[in-house]
């Protein structure tokens, strides 16, 4: 039996250290306040559990006394110890991932089932009883050292959802995941010393069809494997799918799957990782382009996109998976395959269906009518699969990454709904920590709900605010509540690829009010550098929006040549323009334009070359306004020749701008787009004008200059 008291620990114990030696030395001091007992031959995760307990409990105590049930000389029995066995608490008595904290006088058992239960026992003790918090990588709070006196300890639990995976970023620290009872960590593996992961084998965790049968490798020899689209066999991850009714394709696919199962187990063993539990079979990440061949078309008419996909997955697994009863196989209900299958098709017993929440309003909950589609699909899917997982998106993408939206208030109710409706696992895409809205709070709520979706939501957010931001917490919460209130008042719908106008529910006056709240919040923690930095981070998404609007959103004073009325003046530079043809379009400085807003003198340049085979960049030249929600052109004007040499203002016409998303496009190829929709623009009527210059012989015969179109500014003028 290996019993080590803290004073002796440094001399005798070497346990695959994950804690900081110097910190440990400080804590250990020269006398024992508690002992840790491990099995004679501890497992890697038991060693880590002991290390973590020693490190953090040491920090919490300092040189103060620890008592349990009124007794000193506390002994922690970590993992599969003789003492635990004597109490009938051997690992076999626990379910996988189940954990237990139980005192017997001064003896405390911290143990559990599988490779993670003991770790979870230690982490629960440190978090719930000692007050340690692991907010994120390199972001933790340990209470000021003090005496700890516990009464009878007797708690056990088990995380509710079987798969708890928050994808943070590529190299996210697995310790943060494990300390917070997440059992997978995106692309970053969890070593066995941290309990391993409930994870995916090769070739990848999603969008795998082209990884099993790469079009680039087999497209020539076996075009019949790939989807027929507009008369051509196409494939590749972002470009096509498979011909799911192709004879023999499931045999070939099953062989590849077998190869990957062998490889997955071997790779994991070589790296000292737990063997993968799930292999993915899901379509490529291009939403359309499913096969149009006669046999696929006929099959689709019978059971829809989803039914076809499930039948294919079931058939592959039936051929490959008989020898692997311990494995699960996942697929995606994503875009066209989100609706439940028709014609009675259901997933095989060992198939996980991961339903992707692509149509949601990010800023509200699953019970809001805006999210009825996902709500109803979850309920419908549970009858079509024994393993329903959800692929959740926690951030907005594209250029509008990191704008504020108040999803945190709905996280508890969402996960409770999922739990009540048969969902058993999650992958939450919550990457881009550095620019994501209110990251720490949302990550905190997600992991809490993954572990226990039935806990009382009251006080969770308030508790976080107080602990994380200290005296500033109240004001930070006030700002977030204002954001939520305005969102509800305006019934704003924030998609995961949002349009600019979707954020206009929060006005410039609201932003100014939030700034005042944060001034008070920052003053409240001015002497606490750690908390001050946290408060500044909480403001970032508001600040990003305020900065953007300050640059583009003001109404600028009248200027000769544009208007004598108020207008929005937008420099057509890399901040404002979406460039959809990088082969000929770039952004350059142009001193002729000068610096209209004091922010730069960049313009958009279209190089009109011989590569422009279709001729869409040549004359005539178009400018138009397109409504993204209604999917229609609202305004278009065409010029057969340049208005003159040098920059000229082009009057496009009058338009009532839509409430949410639109863009103004340039050229007949629509590859220069300005998607800005700022408060005050949406729903109102404007004259659209643009400052454009043409050069070169293509536009002015005999000119020696290069053939170019330069777009300098775009103005929306009040009529
Ligand atoms: Zn086909």
Topology of this protein?
Elements: E1 2-5, H1 6-12, H2 21-28, E2 34-38, H3 44-61, E3 66-68, E4 74-78, H4 82-86, E5 99-104, E6 107-112, H5 117-129, E7 133-136, E8 139-141, E9 148-150, E10 154-157, E11 163-167, H6 174-179, H7 209-212, H8 215-218, E12 227-229, E13 232-234, H9 249-270, E14 278-280, H10 294-320, E15 328-333, E16 351-356, H11 372-381, E17 387-393, H12 411-420, E18 423-429, H13 439-451, H14 460-469, H15 473-490, H16 508-524, H17 529-552, E19 555-556, E20 567-571, E21 578-579, E22 585-589, E23 602-607, E24 621-627, E25 632-639, E26 648-656, E27 662-666, E28 672-674, E29 685-695, E30 708-717
Helix pairs in contact: 2-3, 3-5, 9-10, 12-13, 14-15, 15-16, 16-17
The structure holds zinc ion.
Zinc ion is lined by residues 228, 243, 245, 291, 293, 295-296.
Question: Would you give an account of this structure?
Answer:
- The chain has 719 residues and is an alpha/beta fold.
- It has four domains: 2-157, 2-Layer Sandwich (Chitobiase, domain 2), CATH 3.30.379; 200-327, no CATH class; 474-551, no CATH class; 555-717, no CATH class.
- The model is unreliable at 6-31 (pLDDT under 50).
- The structure holds zinc ion (ZN).
- Zinc ion binds at residues 228, 243, 245, 291, 293, 295-296.
Comma- or semicolon-separated keywords:
30% helix; 4 domains; 719 residues; Chitobiase, domain 2; binds zinc ion; alpha/beta; 22% strand; 6-stranded mixed sheet
């Amino acid at each position: 039996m290996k019993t080590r008291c803290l004073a002796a620990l440094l001399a005798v114990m070497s346990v695959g250290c994950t804690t900081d030696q110097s910190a440990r030395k400080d804590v250990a001091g020269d006398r024992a306040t508690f002992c840790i007992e491990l099995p004679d031959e501890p497992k890697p995760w038991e060693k880590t559990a002991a290390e973590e307990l020693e490190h953090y409990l040491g920090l919490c105590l300092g040189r103060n006394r620890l008592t349990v049930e009124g007794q000193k000389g506390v002994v922690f029995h970590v993992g599969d110890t003789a003492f635990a066995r004597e109490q009938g608490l051997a690992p076999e008595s626990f379910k996988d991932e189940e954990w237990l904290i139980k005192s017997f006088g001064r003896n405390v058992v911290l143990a559990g089932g599988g490779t993670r239960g003991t770790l979870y026992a230690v982490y629960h003790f440190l978090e719930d009883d000692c007050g340690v918090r692991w907010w994120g990588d390199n972001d933790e709070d340990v209470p000021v050292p003090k005496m700890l006196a516990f009464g009878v300890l007797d708690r056990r639990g088990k995380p509710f959802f079987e798969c708890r995976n928050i994808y943070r970023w590529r190299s996210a620290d697995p310790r943060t995941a494990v300390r917070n009872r997440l059992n997978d960590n995106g692309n970053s593996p969890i070593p066995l010393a941290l309990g391993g992961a409930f994870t995916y084998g090769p070739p990848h965790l999603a969008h795998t069809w082209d990884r099993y049968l790469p079009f680039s490798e087999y497209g020539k020899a076996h075009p019949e494997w790939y989807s027929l689209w507009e008369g051509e066999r196409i494939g590749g991850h972002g470009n096509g799918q498979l011909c799911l009714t192709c004879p023999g394709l499931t045999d070939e696919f099953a062989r590849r799957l077998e190869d990957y199962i062998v490889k997955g187990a071997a790779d994991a063993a070589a790296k000292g990782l737990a063997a993968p539990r799930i292999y993915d079979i899901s379509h490529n990440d291009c939403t359309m382009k499913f096969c149009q061949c006669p046999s696929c078309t006929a099959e689709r008419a019978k059971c829809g996109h989803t039914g076809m996909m499930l039948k294919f997955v079931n058939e592959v697994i039936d051929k490959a998976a008989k020898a692997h009863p311990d494995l699960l196989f996942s697929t995606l209900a994503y875009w066209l395959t989100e609706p439940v299958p028709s014609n009675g098709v259901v997933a095989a017993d060992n198939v996980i269906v991961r339903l992707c929440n692509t149509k949601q309003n990010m800023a509200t909950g699953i019970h809001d009518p805006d999210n009825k589609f996902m709500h109803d699909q979850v309920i419908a899917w549970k009858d079509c699969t024994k393993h329903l997982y959800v692929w959740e998106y926690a951030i907005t993408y594209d250029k509008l990454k990191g704008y504020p939206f108040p999803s945190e208030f709905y996280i508890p109710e969402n996960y409770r709904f999922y739990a009540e409706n048969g969902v058993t696992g999650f992958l939450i895409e919550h990457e881009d920590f550095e620019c994501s809205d209110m990251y720490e709070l949302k990550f905190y709520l997600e992991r809490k709900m993954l572990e226990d979706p039935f806990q009382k939501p009251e006080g969770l957010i308030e508790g976080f605010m107080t602990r994380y931001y200290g005296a500033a917490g109240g004001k930070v919460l006030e700002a977030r509540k204002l954001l939520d209130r305005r969102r509800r008042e305006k019934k704003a719908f924030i998609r995961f690829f949002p349009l600019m106008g979707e954020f206009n529910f929060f006005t410039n006056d609201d932003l100014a009010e939030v700034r005042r709240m944060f001034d008070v919040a920052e003053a409240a923690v001015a002497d606490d550098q750690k908390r001050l930095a946290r408060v500044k981070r909480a403001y970032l998404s508001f600040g990003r929006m305020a900065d953007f609007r300050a640059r583009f959103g003001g109404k600028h004073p009248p200027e000769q040549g544009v208007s004598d009325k108020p207008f929005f003046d937008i420099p057509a530079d890399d901040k404002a323009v979406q460039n959809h043809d990088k082969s000929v379009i770039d952004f350059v400085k142009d001193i002729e334009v000068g610096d209209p807003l004091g922010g730069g003198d960049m313009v958009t340049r279209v190089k009109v070359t011989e590569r422009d085979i279709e001729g869409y960049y040549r004359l005539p030249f178009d400018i138009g306004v397109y409504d993204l929600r209604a999917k229609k052109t609202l305004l278009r004007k065409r010029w057969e020749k340049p208005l003159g040499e040098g920059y000229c203002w082009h009057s496009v016409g009058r338009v009532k701008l839509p409430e949410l998303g639109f863009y103004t496009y340039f050229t007949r190829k629509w590859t220069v787009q300005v998607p800005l929709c700022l408060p005050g623009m949406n729903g109102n009527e404007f004259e659209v004008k643009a400052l454009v210059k043409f050069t070169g012989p293509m536009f002015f015969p005999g000119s020696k200059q290069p053939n170019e179109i330069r777009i300098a500014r775009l103005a929306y003028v009040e009529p």
